[in-house]
Amino acid sequence: MVMFPNLLTFARIFAIPFIVACFYVEGFFAHLIATLLFVVACLTDFFDGYLARQWKQVSALGRFLDPVADKLLVATTLLMLSGVGMISGIHLIASVIILAREIMVSGLRQFMAEMKVRVPVTKFAKWKTAMQMISISCLLCSAMFPEIPVIKQIGLILLWIAVIMTVATCIRYLHFGAVKIAAEMDQQD
What we know:
mainly alpha; Four Helix Bundle (Hemerythrin (Met), subunit A)
């Protein structure tokens, strides 16, 4: 039986192709739909976890799927924003850092799972994801109002703040992994 919080997570994943499709349509309404879909998808990120805890419906599927849905939503939208030039020049480095961190931490989680070690999600990592989502929301919104360049500038500033948070959480996770791997190696000696 799929619980409602997991349905919210699936909805976040389901929204991604529609957000992508909006990038291939010109005009204000396509930008509006992409922005609204993205923002609603981001809201499901809060509510799926909140409801799962409140209703005592936390599940292994939900713990696995929630970060995957976040990464898919953020990565896909960053790639699309980069592809259409909303993120360009030096700001592409921000997208690359975010994508590289997500791949690295996912790999670490998989490696640690093979060692039977669960890598806990920190509150700071949740704030990092929120900052990524807010910056992307601003960038999506800026496409609706190109005559107001400050919206895009705010989005890019927030994107770099998200990068700082992204690097900080990556360092924390890599340190956690190194400590656990060292402990495991000590036990084997």
